[in-house]
Design a protein that fits this description.
about 160 residues, about 45% strand, 1 helix, disordered C terminus, mainly beta, five-stranded mixed β-barrel
Length: about 160
């Protein structure tokens, strides 16, 4: 009686995908952030990027009290991503927004000789979750708007 062949790797054997694209998606760099804009979005680098900054709150319990830490995230959207770029340009201070993209971290030396690190999210999908409300509790004229990089269409499963 012969043993049936299995596709299970042997102990201590690493299985790699076959073909030339085996390392194509080996690493993942995706981040999603949601928060309120610190100031209006601006167009920089001769119209190549829309830049904005998100403040996101994290709440936790300490000593029986709810504490809040605010984190700040720099976001850039390339003008090559037309829909996302146009949406990001309309963001205003206080708007609640969502951004999905890739993290990029750069190190540099300050004029004082210290090493600094700055992180930026290069977003390919952004949308306005909720416009900032004015003093009377009314939402601004902006309507919630979504945009993203082009996606492949998929057909729904047939039943």
């Amino acid at each position: 009686m012969s043993k049936a062949k299995t596709n299970e790797p042997k102990k201590d054997e690493v299985q790699k995908p076959e073909g030339e694209n085996q390392d194509l998606f080996a690493d993942i760099n995706v981040t999603m952030k949601s928060g309120h804009l610190v100031k209006d979005a601006e167009v920089i680098a001769e119209g190549k990027y829309a830049k904005f900054r998100i403040a996101g709150n994290k709440q936790y319990m300490a000593d029986g009290e709810i504490k809040t830490i605010t984190n700040y995230f720099n976001v850039m959207v390339s003008s090559n991503l037309t829909d996302a770029f146009e949406t990001a340009q309309e963001f205003k201070k206080g708007d609640w927004v969502y951004a999905k993209g890739e993290d990029s971290t750069k190190s540099f030396d300050t004029p004082q000789g210290y090493k600094q690190t700055a992180s930026t999210i290069f977003a390919y999908e952004v949308f306005l979750k909720k416009p900032k409300e004015d003093e009377a509790g009314q939402a601004s004229d902006a309507k919630p708007k979504a945009s993203s990089a082009p996606k492949k269409e998929h057909q729904p499963a047939m039943s």
